[in-house]
Amino acid sequence: MKLVIAAGPPSAGKTAVIRQIIGQMRDRLAIAYMKIDVVRAFEDEELAAEFGIPTKKIYSGDLCPDHAGIMVMSDAIAWAEEHAADLLIVESAGLCLRCSPYTTQSLGIVVLSAVSGTNTPLKMGAMLALADIAVVTRIDLVSQAEKEVFRERIREVSAALDIVETNAVQGTGMRYLLRAINAFPEIENPESIVLRGAPPLGVCTICIGKKEIGWQQHFGVIRKLEGADYLYRGD
Predict the structure, then answer these.
(1) Three-state DSSP class for 30?
(2) Chain-centroid distance, C-alpha 184
(3) What does the pLDDT look like over 118-134, one tens digit per residue?
(4) Which of 28, 57, 114, 210 maximizes the CB count within 10 A of its CB?
(5) What is the largest CA-CA distance in the chain?
(6) Do 141 and 209 belong to one domain?
């Protein structure tokens, strides 16, 4: 079974890209789909109704959705194998720009909207830098000059990243992405899959429930207003 993990900011067009993948590959591959979101999600129901494929969703709640995805990934692979899937597509909400959902033995796809601003790629961090392919959607709504600037901003983050430009609703420009998925190898050993890249530096005390303002009230990795360095406060 192949594993594809798609991430990107909200409303970037992730599900539209995935809909094109499923629509154009389901005659050759048995596809399973899992959606990871924070509070509510409907994409799994829509894709199940449209394509008749097995789908699943989880809500991360208090967890980062990218981290929740890592926690459930082995279960998701086993679930897809139970459905005899040839391809498992995992769509992450991708809300935390310091995190990345991609694993080893997966094809990492980041989806960005061309109308989000030409400097958006520079703000993406690991979600873009650790991906294999960047899919830029809504290219029909920007000028050629804006497309070229957007492409160069992606190159600034990751010079080797493959870029696919598409109007995902109509499916233009998707042939390269489909070829990349077809050429990508299947999972060799699910037990050896690990998170790609380094996870964030640490969980702060705000993440675990402290509400007081001011760095003096917190411990672990902290940050002051003045100075660019992070500090460690505590034992």
Answers:
(1) coil
(2) 17
(3) 999 998 888 999 999 99
(4) 114
(5) 59
(6) no
Structural domains in the chain (count): 2
138: left (phi over 0), alpha (psi -120 to 50) or beta: left
- Alpha carbon separation from 55 to 35, 49, 88, 110, 233 (Å, rounded): 8, 10, 10, 21, 45
113 and 76 both lie in a single domain: yes
Q: Buried b vs exposed e over 201-224: b needs ≥16 C-beta within 10 Å?
A: eeeebeeeeeeeeeeeebebbbee
* 212, 139 contact by CB (below 8 A): no
The whole-number average pLDDT for the span 168-191 is 91
**Nearest Cα to 68, choosing from 39, 88, 46?**
39
* DSSP strands (E only) in the chain: 2-7, 31-37, 55-59, 87-92, 107-113, 133-137, 162-165, 220-222, 231-233
